[in-house]
Amino acid sequence: MHLVEPMARSFFAIAILAAVSASAQTYSIRDLGVLGGTYSQANGIGGWGQIVGVSETGENEYHAFLYSGRTMTDLGTFGGVQSAATAINSNSQVTGFYYDHGYKAFLLTDGQVIDLGNLGATYSIGYAINDLGQVVGSSITTAKHEHAFLFTDGQMIDLGTLGGTMSTALGINSSSQITGYSYDADWNFRAFLWQNGTMTDLGTLGGDWSVGNAINSAGQIVGQAYLPGNVRAHAFLYSGGEMKDLGALGGFYSSALAVNSTATEIVGYATGGSGIPRAFIYRDGAMKDLNGLIPRGGWVLNTASGIDDTGQIVGYGLYRGEQHAFLLTPK
Questions:
Q1: Phi, psi of 95 (to 5 degrees)
Q2: Which residues contact 199 (CB under 8 A, 6 or more apart)?
Q3: What is the distance between the alpha carbons of residues 65 and 82, in angstroms, rounded to a whole number?
Q4: Are 225 and 234 in contact (CB under 8 A)?
Q5: Which pairing describes strands 155-160 and 146-152: parallel, antiparallel, or unpaired?
Q6: pLDDT per residue over 267-276, tens digit each?
Q7: What pLDDT was estimated at residue 275?
Q8: Local structure of 124: helix, strand or coil
Q9: For residue 189, how many other CB atoms are within 10 A of its CB?
Q10: pTM of the predicted protein model
Q11: Band of pLDDT at residue 46, cut at 50, 70 and 90
Q12: pLDDT band for position 23 (50/70/90)?
């Protein structure tokens, strides 16, 4: 039997180590802290690593926050009594909602707060924003139905439904393509793609129900859909006209909440075999529990809610018994 020459062995070992390293991406973790209370939740990350979400204050109120430069800043309540920030774009514009005798969607831009109004009744929530400053969300119409909206050029546009009575928009890209879900009085949900004035049903994974949560610059959509039998609901990637099942870490439920610009990395949560939500990343054709990719030290990562194109991930989980927002950075 011939032994591998020393030089060949060294190259062989390097190749093995490179392959292992590529398949086992790990992360450092940072606790984003709180605004004086015991609870915080990160909802989105912008192009400059800025993070937005909601945190409990020392007065047991819930306020929107902006995390930037290792500092969590209280954005206040914009004249209301509670607030939450849901998304931020690459231009540091923030959307979300505050409560003042009803929920009101806002756009925070250049230090100024814009009330986005509503579609007829005192209710609106902003869920996502693109780099053009366009906001999508949901509002109550004069007919008392919840409808998806697009806020652009100072106006709130009703996006309609898939034929039912209600809809909600949850994601928008810089081509003004929008995703979310539409539903009827019997609560049958269907994920949609809205573009150029037309709302298209994306279908399901074989069951009766689906939701689109986010859309990237290529028009690829991630979300959650029921499988045949309507017992299991799995995270999906919709691309090229097809909906792909991403799995659920061996459990019954998972949901994809964010996707990078190339759809090579998708994050969300899955119940796994235990039934307890676990933050995941889907990469290289496999879903991985993010809890196994961070240093040990008191964290249980429940939900990954955002990812940027550098691979940084935000979300929330339990840290020493309290729910805190986190930032994961690839090592």
A1: -125, 170
A2: 159, 160, 161, 162, 167, 182, 192, 193
A3: 12
A4: yes
A5: antiparallel
A6: 999 998 888 9
A7: 86
A8: strand
A9: 24
A10: 0.92
A11: very high
A12: low
Share of the chain above pLDDT 90, in %: 89
pLDDT of residue 110: 95
- DSSP string computed for 54-108: EEEETTS-EEEEEEETTEEEE---TTSSEEEEEEE-TT--EEEEEESSSEEEEEE
Tokens 């930032």, residue located: 327
Token pair of 131 as six digits: 């780099």
Residue type, 21: S
Site of tokens 């009085």: 185
Give residue 313's Cα distance to chain centre.
10
Please give the single-letter amino acid code of residue 282.
Y
The single-letter DSSP state of residue 14 is H
- Say whether pLDDT at 148 is over 60: yes
Torsions phi, psi of 69, nearest 5? Answer: 60, 35
Which DSSP symbol is given to 32?
A: -
Listed in sequence order, the residues at least 6 apart from 121 whose beta carbon sits closer than 8 Å to its beta carbon are 102, 139, 140, 141, 142, 144
* Residue 138, amino acid: S
Residue with tokens 């759809």: 263
CB neighbours of residue 105 within 10 Å = 27
As a whole number of angstroms, the distance between CA 190 and CA 185 comes to 13
Task: Report whether 324 contacts 299 (CB < 8 A).
Answer: no
d(CA 207, CA 210): 8
Amino acid identity of residue 81, one-letter, is: V
Residue 290 in tokens: 């993010």
pLDDT score of 273: 80
Backbone φ and ψ for 309, nearest 5 degrees, come out as -80, -5
Does residue 9 register a pLDDT over 50? Answer: no
Beta partners for residue 138, in sequence order: 125, 148
Q: What is the distance between the alpha carbons of residues 239 and 217, in angstroms, rounded to a whole number?
A: 12
Q: Assess contact for 245 and 255: CB atoms under 8 A.
A: no
Place of tokens 């290792």: 70
